[in-house]
Amino acid sequence: MRADAQRNAAKLRTAAAELFRERGLQVSLKEIARRAGVSHGTLYNLFGTREALIDEVVADLAADRLAEAAEQALARDDAWEGFAYYIEKVCELQATDPAVSDVIAGRYPGAERLMALCESSHAAAARIIERAQQAGALRPDFTRGDLLFVFGTNAVLARASADAAPTAWRRGVAFMLDGLRTEAARPLPVGPLTEEQLAQVLGGLTGTP
């Protein structure tokens, strides 16, 4: 790659990371090009697709923070405290960085690095859930699908209330956590979502076709 192309690629990666953090992964590619100070055609020549550009910056966007949230949760001696910490931390990341919500939802399946990060995040979450359930602290009927549903609805609330009440999501999370304790459990009116249903619901929440 020529030196000028390398400089333009670096500018585009920086601009993409900034705008993805501000507005999520759906931000216009033309806007990314404008912020980088290059043409729309240059972006396509260097990266080709939105997914390729996402994969260039996704590690910087979310990987370290999601991994740290899981590590800190699993390091807690009390399994319930670890579970609650993970929920609260990821919801906080969603509220402050819209790109995190898109990563968790796997919004762009054509982005291979993003999907790998999404899968690794889901696997860590499953370990956190299992640990809390084995300790008898988390109701046994709570599933990984339920957790993704929690994150999906939190993402919508966090984005809708960002200007008027930026911490409103914390109230909803607190109510939800109290309802997930084993001692608060009551029979549920319907069963868990299937994988297909979950994908459809998350697609609707995030605007994925």
TrEMBL record:
Q: Which Pfam families match?
A: TetR_C_43 (PF21597), TetR_N (PF00440)
Q: Which residues bind DNA?
A: 28-47
The record's listing under Gene3D superfamilies reads: Tetracycline Repressor, domain 2
- Tell whether DNA-binding is among the UniProt keywords: yes
Keyword annotations for this protein, in alphabetical order, are: DNA-binding, Transcription, Transcription regulation
Start and end residues of each HTH tetR-type domain: 6-65
According to the UniProt entry, its GO molecular function terms are: DNA-binding transcription factor activity; transcription cis-regulatory region binding
Transcription regulation recorded as keyword:
yes
Alphabetical list of InterPro entries matching this protein: Homeodomain-like_sf, HTH-type_TetR-like_transc_reg, HTH_TetR, Tet_transcr_reg_TetR-rel_C_sf, TetR_SbtR-like_C
Entry protein name = TetR family transcriptional regulator
